[in-house]
Amino acid sequence: MKKSIFFAALCVSMTLAAQKPNEAYLAYIEQWKETAIQQQIDYGVPAAITMAQALLESGAGKSELAVNAKNHFGIKCTSDWFGGVYYHDDETAGECFRQYYDAAESFKDHSLFLKRPRYATCFEIAPQDYEAWAYRLRDCGYATDYLYAPKLVKIIETYHLDALTEAALQSDRPKSPEVIAAEQEKAAAAAHPKKRPLKATVVKKSEPIMVVHNDPEPEYVKPLTAKQERDSFYLKHPKHKCNGLTYVVAREEDTYPNVAFRLNMRERDLREYNDALGRDLQKGDRIYLFAKKRAGDKEFVWSHTGLSLWELSQNEGVTIAAIQKLNGLDPTIRVFRTRQKIYLKKVKEGSKAVAGGLGVGEEK
């Protein structure tokens, strides 16, 4: 009996605690309610939804993202984002999130983010129907949390945020000047498509360069995984073998940064494997995927006039440093001037004649 009474009392206590308004939430609502209302006037996103998402995603402005990146909605980077970035552990470690100049910019970008095609069906719902909006946002993929919609609804009802939506609907406040200008520009472009003016976003010199466009962003395209990117690369770049090493042949569009990215490697490692620090990749070049060896699979080769030390190194899969050491080459000379015998393996002293210039044996 006593246990039952205690349990009931505990439940009542927890319920009352849950219903008690959070002072930090109240202060946050007071600070940003006018901004949320203006977003509804400008872009049609219900102010109640905007405020509830901001409270939930930013912890009333107290989260790491909100404090350090001014990101109040947990919006991640996309391929078309050219503003600041902030790396933060979320579903996986070190995920890329958008960084803003201030929180007001975050509110605006949230509205523009919801104007993407992915969320178009949300705007078919009446702004007063906050519950349908919350569930539609979740279904469109705004968050992976299955309870995301109920959480938004709970916040809206606890803090009566639907009043913000009604205030926006009843307001005679005009749209923001920049929104009006953007709409006029679109109308002019539609009327004269061939004479559409190109207008860049103006950023004050005192502010960081963070671009927020007035147009909705294109549909999000899921990027390839590292494995998919690598498999796609090998479809156009068949593997070859030399001196027991794997290499591919560069195509016209290839660069060391691009190849390294597609193979999920560090660019500097790839360059060092190919003795290519400070060198651009050219069509037809061999790209070794592992460090070249300090000895070749044959004892020596004959060079020809004009052959560079780098070309020989790539042709035989032996490092430049090893070839220089094996043949006593002057490190300042990089091109062979005469037909010469170049050793690729260590040989006994006296078995090779050391010539002048490059310091390698010449053919008799």
What order do the helices and strands come in, and which of them pair?
Blueprint lengths: L1 H18 L3 H21 L3 H12 L5 H6 L14 E5 L6 E5 L3 H12 L15 H10 L8 H11 L3 H9 L6 H15 L34 H11 L3 E3 L2 E5 L6 H7 L4 H7 L12 E3 L11 E3 L6 H8 L3 H8 L12 E4 L17 E2 L2
Antiparallel strand pairs: 1-2, 3-4, 4-5, 6-7, 7-8
Describe this structure in words.
The chain is mostly helical. Helix content is 43%, strand content 8%. It has 14 helices and 8 strands. It has a 3-stranded antiparallel beta sheet, with helices on one face. A 3-stranded antiparallel beta sheet has the order 6-7-8, covered by helices on one side. It has a two-stranded antiparallel sheet with strand order 1-2. 25% of the residues are buried. The model is unreliable at 1-19 and 353-364 (pLDDT under 50).
Describe this structure in a few short sentences.
By secondary structure, the chain is mainly α. The protein has 14 helices and eight strands. Helix 2 (23-43) crosses helix 3 (47-58), helix 2 runs parallel beside helix 8 (162-170) and helix 3 (47-58) packs across helix 7 (148-158).
What attributes does this structure have?
single chain; three-stranded antiparallel β-sheet; 14 helices; 43% helix; disordered N terminus
Q: Mean of residue pLDDT?
A: 83
Radius of gyration from the alpha-carbon trace, in angstroms: 32 Å
The biggest sheet amounts to: 3 strands, antiparallel
Widest sheet: strand ordering? 3-4-5
How helix-rich are the residues, as a percent range? Answer: 40-55%
